[in-house]
Amino acid sequence: MDIQLFLLIIVVVTALAFDFTNGFHDTANAMATSIASGALKPKTAVALSAALNLVGAFLSTTVAATIAKGLIDSSIVSLELVFAGLVGGVVWNLLTWLLGIPSSSSHALIGGIVGATIAAVGAHGVIWSGVMSKAIIPAVVSVFVALFVGACATWAVFRITKGLQKERTEAGFRRGQIGSASLVSLAHGTNDAQKTMGIIFLALMSYGSVSKSAAVPPMWVIVACAIAMATGTYLGGWRIIRTLGKGLVEITSPQGMAAESSSAAVILLSAHFGYALSTTQVCTGSVMGSGLGKPGGEVRWGVAGRMAVAWLVTLPLAGLVGAITYWIVHYIGGYPGAVVGFGLLVGVSSAIYIRSRKNKVDQNNVNDEWKGDLTAGLDENKPSRGAKVGAAAGSDDVSVG
């Protein structure tokens, strides 16, 4: 087999693996508040989110074009570079998932690609104006916009329903959350699945099977990415769902509906204009806004601070992983380099997964009381009430905690 074809296959497999991690990493964006408020049962929520992510992936390809052409000089793209960038994204996604931090999959991917590009040809290979205008500026602005919109929407909801019977309004908002959470899932599919489409698009351009003037990825790329993300979403990234639903703000149904509606509006607008927006940062901003907008509500700023630190270091650290991976693959070279690079990715991913089993979070304990600073807010030494119930029931559901 030709070495370039071998590399292309590895790149496509790794890209779909990234899409899979993006799915379970970002399930929380759509469903954390609905699960926390009791509007949807955990497994029902992730199944609904998976179906709508699948549909959303087919609705637009604008963001895919942004990733493929707006961030680095396509004339210098190589399969080694694309693979190294993907490794940076996958490793950062898995590490932040292990820690229960809802960080940006978008920025992890962009950081990995930019880092690999700098390692390959230097900083001149990066379209810095594109990175700023298409990624960094929208991400920074979107957090504050989502926070403001979420706070205003929550304040308005509580203002309008003031004096009404709480039980009746809660029940109504729980039903409304099903619609608003579904809209966020659909919006997530239109935005995030396309990022992996864009990466595979880049790889196909580099290999020569797609013209560099092409505007839309091949249909098989769209279908494969949609399925990979939907599958990851269905398995449920329970650790991050727990952090966003229980760790940041104690969510009620009115807050949840306001936050989800705010998130969907911002995400759909970004997809329309082709911005590679972080849905994680948008949804986190909306959830914080719901805490600020509720009379007497509060935000756990310690948890929010750790998220902010993770956001700040995502681009450089994912870029560092991408750069190191490129150097390893490039300097070993040929089949051995590709095999070593892929083997390291599998090894690191396996180690992170094994570590996560020591403090498992799943549908049984995702809504347990938040206990503080430990990973996902659970005491590692004492199984939670939900975990005990799940163990007693002999649950064998497959999930990604």
From TrEMBL:
Pfam families: PHO4
Region (Disordered): 372-401
GO molecular function terms listed in the Swiss-Prot or TrEMBL record: phosphate transmembrane transporter activity
Subcellular location: Membrane
Any single biological process term in GO: phosphate ion transmembrane transport
Residue ranges of the TM segments: 46-67, 79-101, 107-128, 135-158, 219-238, 308-329, 335-354
Topology relative to the membrane: Multi-pass membrane protein
Predominant location category: membrane
One GO cellular component term: membrane
Family: Belongs to the inorganic phosphate transporter (PiT) (TC 2.A.20) family.
Name this polypeptide is given: Phosphate transporter
UniProt organism field: Mycobacterium florentinum
